[in-house]
Each structure stands twice: as structure tokens, then as C-alpha cells.
Amino acid sequence: MEGGSAETTQQLPFAKWKSDFSRAFQYYLDRSTPHPVGRWLGTLAVAAIYVLRVYYVQGFYIVSYGLGIYVLNLLIGFLSPKVDPELEVMDGASLPMKGSDEFKPFIRRLPEFKFWYSITKAFLVAFVMTFFSFFDVPVFWPILLCYWIVLFVLTMKRQILHMIKYKYVPFSIGKQKYTGRRSSGSSPSSSRD
Q1: Tens place of pLDDT for every residue, the chain, 193 residues?
Q2: CA distance 60 to 64
Q3: Which stretches are transmembrane (predicted)?
Q4: Domain boundary assignment for the chain
Q5: How far is the CA of 5 from the CAs of 1, 12, 16, 88, 187, in angstroms?
Q6: Residue 137: is it exposed, middle or buried by C-beta count within 10 angstroms (0-12/13-18/19+)?
């Protein structure tokens, strides 16, 4: 029995440290949520460091290819509606097809925050992988690059045709925003009589 209690006392500090680290990490992750520009600039910095590492090492092209495929998969999830009108028969929660249809907001299959978080984790994991030589498989990288470009073009063509067919825009840039009701020609101070 004594051996079990000694093992438990050794595991408790590690469990406490893990719990404290997890709580602190979640706290800072939650605090970053309302700052998308800062988050994406940080991810851009991580991506630049990864690209520089691969450039100076002159290797790890398979890791980069895998990272590119994963990011492409995330991008498709980010650009797709949560409920695809082609695949699922809806009971009122579909994208509007005509001008007379009721407005339904675009809900992404992969929300922006999860998209950012997944891309950032992917770049960090790929960066760590560049420190282990068994991930550096010798390949002719121009072939991988050409294959990835063809895959990207075909995938994005299909996604853009889907957007056109079902008339949705996954970006909120340039969309009208509700600003509240304004009275025409009268200010709040002139209506006090």
C-alpha cells in the first residue's frame, strides 16, 4: 500500500501543474477571442518563422505538403455553410434561394476562431517536426508544389461554383450592418418640448 501512496503523491504535483497550465492557457485563449487582427498577425509571424526554417534547412517538403493539404481542408470548412443544401434536406434552416426567401445568416461549418486556432497549431506542430530528421524524406519538391496547386485550384473552383449556385458569400466585408433606427430630420434635443 505504501508504494501506491508514494506514486499518488508524485502524480499530484504533475496533475496540479497540468491543471494550472490548462486553466492559464484557456484564460489567455479566451482573452484573445475579441482580437482577430492580433491573432492572425501572430499566426502570420508563426507561419513566416516556419517558412524561414524550411528555407534555411532546405528540407522537410513532405511536412510542408502535409501542412498545405491540412490548411486547404480547413479553408474549405471555413468557406462552407454549416448545413450544405446539396447534402441535407432542411426543415426551414437552409440558405435563401430567391429574393423572396427569408433572410438566413451564413453560419460557417468551421467558425473563424477554430479556423485560426487549428491553423496556428498546425504551423507549430510542423515547426517542431522540422527538428526531427526522420520527417525529412527526400522528395522532388517541385512535383509536390505543382500537385498542391492543381489540388487547390480544383477544390476552390468547386467551392466557388457551390457559392454561386446557392448564392452565399462567406465573408462579412461589405455586407450591410444594422445600425439602429434613426428618426429623419429630428435630433434628440429638439424633441424635448
Answers
A1: 455 555 556 678 888 888 888 999 899 888 988 899 999 999 999 999 999 999 999 999 999 999 999 999 999 999 888 877 767 655 555 555 555 555 566 778 889 999 999 999 999 999 999 999 999 998 898 999 999 999 999 999 998 888 888 777 777 665 566 666 765 555 555 444 4
A2: 6
A3: 37-56, 62-80, 115-133, 139-156
A4: 33-166
A5: 7, 11, 16, 55, 74
A6: exposed
